[in-house]
């Protein structure tokens, strides 16, 4: 999302790294490039100007110790100002924990979701319900959007999907009055009455959290604001969240400002954060509206939502990675006991295909491969022009599922006739099956050798294993990587790991 901004900052740091000290002249020249990068990313003009002025003020005349290079000092300055831009506290040793959904006893805690049509509001209601469900809290979704055709049915489908697809013992309930859709526009306060009835139903069922999916419009208008103000006044929600499409750039920021001025929203939820957009809305919304970003949508699935941490996002933009978020994702998917059992099997060289399949499924639940690797320090920029075919996971899974229990435990048994059967059963080729078993054999040997290593040796082996992906690899990074998985450079900037090699031009040697 922030590729252009990240490139601008990296160019600045490279230019300053060759200087002996940070001066007004070299910083001013560098900040011109940063300003251009911010404006090209669709950051609000006033926000870009203010940001650059603050960085200039912090950096000018900055004394740099011998132990710290000017480029490194500049990274620290920019990092602090980015944290502030996102609503964090720059320079603080420990950032405050982002506020969560308040707990009330007795409930329910009422959340009003608002936003324009097409911003992803209904899906975000399901994502938020799924997040609360994981926390063991029961949720009710109320279909208060009586204007849009099939909106009630869509929210009911989302509620059912949350119960089916997402873990957690609690339930996602649904409340809707589809018969009221015909009355909408003819009688005043129909949507408000539906919300009030939903509060009563939530209390009767002992639900912890009630989420109101209100109506949207194609643009901010008096009719929309009048309805939302009525819901807010009569229902008195404990939280009011504004759902904003990150792809709409400055339009998203302007609409967020209008909503906040009239409704005083508690926070913003940015959707489509994983899209190939320029990131201007994310960088501008807090500064322009005063409303903090609370959550970000990072995918299409109902579990693809994250709490927004200003300092972590600033680190991602500057290529520092976000290892803390990566660890948190892993902790949500695997217990300490499971991790210890797996480590013991790996140390003994007893890792089989079933274990690998479980780990692969766990990794897929954590997010896309590109988003996960982007959280590793220094890897994000290398992934910019890399296309990752996530469907290869499906093919690998199909190949493993087509194996017999004996073949999963001992992949070395898979010879020509077995390869042919597995390939036919999984819809792949014999070559792909052979590649998978070969790479898995290498992985098993490496894991077994790591069992007798010290901490340093294990770390080196882990880095080597994670470096490349199935032979495709990242530029400058070797290793074996994930069996059956490969990456290639985007066709926009050339081919990597595919295509015909061009012969070098020039005279042939005799």
Description:
The protein is of the alpha/beta class and 510 residues long. The chain folds into 3 domains: 3-85, Four Helix Bundle (Hemerythrin (Met), subunit A) (Up-down Bundle), CATH 1.20.120.140; 109-310, P-loop containing nucleotide triphosphate hydrolases (Rossmann fold, 3-Layer(aba) Sandwich); 325-453, Signal recognition particle, SRP54 subunit, M-domain (434 Repressor (Amino-terminal Domain), Orthogonal Bundle). The protein has 20 helices and 10 strands. The chain is flat, with a radius of gyration of 26 Å. Mean pLDDT is 77; it is low at 454-481, 491-504 and 506-510.
Based on secondary structure, the structural category is alpha/beta
The rounded Rg comes to 26 Å
Number of helices: 20
Number of strands: 10
Terminal CA distance reads 51 Å
CATH topology category name of the largest domain: Rossmann fold
State the main characteristics.
eight-stranded mixed β-sheet, 50% helix, two-stranded antiparallel ribbon, 20 helices, 510 residues, alpha/beta, Rossmann fold, 434 Repressor (Amino-terminal Domain), 3 domains, single chain, 9% strand, Four Helix Bundle (Hemerythrin (Met), subunit A)
């Amino acid at each position: 999302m922030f590729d252009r901004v990240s490139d601008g900052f990296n160019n600045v740091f490279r230019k300053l790294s060759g200087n002996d000290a940070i001066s007004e002249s070299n910083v001013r020249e560098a900040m011109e490039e940063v300003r251009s990068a911010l404006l090209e990313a669709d950051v609000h003009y006033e926000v870009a100007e203010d940001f650059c002025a603050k960085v200039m003020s912090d950096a000018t005349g900055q004394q740099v110790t011998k132990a710290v290079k000017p480029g490194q000092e500049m990274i620290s300055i920019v990092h602090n100002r980015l944290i502030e831009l996102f609503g964090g506290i720059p320079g603080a040793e420990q950032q405050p924990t982002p506020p969560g959904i308040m707990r009330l006893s007795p409930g329910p805690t009422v959340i009003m979701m608002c936003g324009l049509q097409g911003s992803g509001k209904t899906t975000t209601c399901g994502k938020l319900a799924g997040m609360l469900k994981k926390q063991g809290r029961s949720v009710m979704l109320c279909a208060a959007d009586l204007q849009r055709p099939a909106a009630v049915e869509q929210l009911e489908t989302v509620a059912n999907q949350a119960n089916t697809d997402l873990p957690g013992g609690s339930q996602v309930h649904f409340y809707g009055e589809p018969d009221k859709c015909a009355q909408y526009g003819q009688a005043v306060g129909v949507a408000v009455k539906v919300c009030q009835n939903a509060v009563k139903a939530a209390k009767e069922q002992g639900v912890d959290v009630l989420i109101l999916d209100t109506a949207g419009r194609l643009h901010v208008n008096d009719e929309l604001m009048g309805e939302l103000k009525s819901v807010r006044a009569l229902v008195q929600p404990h939280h009011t969240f504004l759902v904003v499409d990150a792809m709409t750039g400055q339009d998203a920021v302007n609409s967020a400002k209008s909503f906040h001025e009239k409704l005083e929203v508690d926070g913003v939820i940015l959707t489509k954060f994983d899209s190939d957009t320029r990131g201007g809305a994310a960088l501008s919304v807090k500064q322009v509206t005063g409303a903090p970003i609370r959550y970000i949508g990072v995918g299409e699935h109902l579990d693809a939502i994250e709490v927004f941490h200003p300092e972590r996002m600033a680190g991602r933009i500057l290529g520092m990675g976000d290892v803390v978020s990566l660890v948190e994702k892993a902790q949500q998917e695997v217990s300490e006991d499971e991790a210890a059992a797996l480590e013991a099997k790996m140390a003994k060289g007893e890792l089989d295909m079933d274990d690998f399949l479980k780990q692969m499924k766990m990794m897929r639940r954590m997010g896309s491969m590109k988003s996960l690797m982007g959280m590793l320090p220094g890897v994000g920029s290398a992934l910019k022009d890399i296309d990752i075919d996530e469907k290869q996971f499906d093919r690998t899974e199909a190949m493993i599922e087509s194996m017999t229990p004996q073949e999963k435990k001992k992949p070395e048994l898979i010879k020509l006739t077995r390869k042919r059967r597995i390939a036919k059963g999984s819809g792949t080729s014999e070559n792909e099956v052979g590649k998978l078993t070969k790479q898995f054999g290498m992985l098993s040997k490496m894991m077994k050798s790591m069992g007798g290593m010290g901490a340093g040796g294990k770390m080196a082996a882990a880095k080597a294993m994670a470096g490349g992906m199935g032979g495709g690899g990242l530029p400058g990074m070797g290793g074996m990587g994930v069996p059956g998985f490969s990456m290639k450079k985007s066709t926009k900037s050339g081919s990597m790991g595919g295509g015909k090699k061009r012969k070098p031009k020039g005279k042939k040697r005799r």
